[in-house]
Hints:
Order of helices and strands: HHHHHHHHHHHHH
Shape: globular
Low-confidence stretches: 28-33, 220-233
Radius of gyration: 20 Å
Helix content: over 70%
Oligomer: single chain
Structural class: mainly alpha
Number of strands: 0
Number of helices: 13
Amino acid sequence: MYIPRLMERLEYIHHLRKEQYLCFRNQNHHFLPFVSSSVIKIVFVITKKFGLNSNTKYIALNLYDKCMKNQFQEIYKENRNDKNFIQWKHLRNKIVNLSKIRLISCIQLASKLDSHSNFLRISQGVIALKLIDFLKNQQHEYFFETLLFSEFSVCKVISFQMLFITPLDCIEVLMSILNFQSISELRSIALDILDLVLIQSHQLLSKLQSFKFCSIPKSKSERLHGTNSMALELDLLCLSSSIIVCALSYLNIAQAMSLHIVEKLSLLIYTSSEKIIIIAYIIRSIVNSC
Length: 290
């Protein structure tokens, strides 16, 4: 294990974390999250069906969320002074109708970013679109050219910025620093929990709102960035740490050891140990209820 290299990766994640907080503070709150549980399930089904790498689905969800938000924001800016609501509604519906094609394009791009050898080909993309139609009881005709154009459109609407840090990246870096990478069972449990948390993300955020994080002593980093429960979905390090702690609870780790691990994670991600424990507790309650 090469700790300096791992710490460099962790510092880079912290750098992106700060940028994400700034984006969250400046975010236009007229737009709701586009990645619904149904979209997440579709991405999981397609990546599994075509044998794509594990991280592809998380990169694809990041791409899709960013793409759709940017596309709606562009249309909103162009039409915000237009009093003709019917025209705005027409434009909105046009984007919504394109959403499944954009989703497949995001999976294609994600698979290329995640692997140069095992990626979703256009012919497979057409099959995936037909699969989505089957799941939604719809039927449309798709052409290779449509997917080619859509892939370029996704790149353009996100300004060709396709460097993402996913929850899986965070989990693997933190587990490696803690010297847990050899515990395959822990990684398997953590990834299962991660998938469930993504599907149940709205439930997680809802439960988090019931806790008063302002009463928990905040670290220097949290005071600087104005952390709150609604920003958690952007704070991948905190979420990933809590998932690791939750996964450890299913391996019957001694309480003293668990607390020691929480303290180490707290120091690594500049977040209070109390916050990690609370989120891990909420995640476990969601897992047990499913």
